[in-house]
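Researcher: I'd like a structural prediction for the single chain below. Treat it as a standalone chain; there are no partners to consider.
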Amino acid sequence: MNKHCNAYGGLAFFTAVAAAISWLLVNQKACQLDAYNTLQLFHIAIAICGIVLFVLAFFNFAGIIYDTVILFYAAFIAILVIAVVAFYAAYVSFRNPCMSAVEGLINIDIKSAIQGKDANIFSAEDPAMITVFVLDLLAGLLLLSASGAFHRRA
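Model: Treating it as a single chain, here is the predicted structure.
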């Protein structure tokens, strides 16, 4: 039996890699991140979805369950839901800059009050969280592409 990875499997693999890198970046930050647990949960869910899709792509999962229409569309919608979770993780990382324990909330509040807007990762100039933001956006786009490839059974 010839095993090869479908297109959605390759996209899912890169999604899992992006989520794992994001998880590591957030996990290694020595800071007070308000949404740390939520963000870590999102990254774990995205990585698990990517790994499961990657493994199932070797068995042509989409082609096998296509005959069971309800199951096929349930899997398709589940992939789309995880893509939305990835975009929400990007939003959470965008709105929650990493604040060191020394700086605390006062420094960020003063900085955001001077600029006249809420604090975000770009106004806080936090390169690690900017990287997490970009990787989460990339994971969301990859999952959207994987869901399209899954739907086409490519």
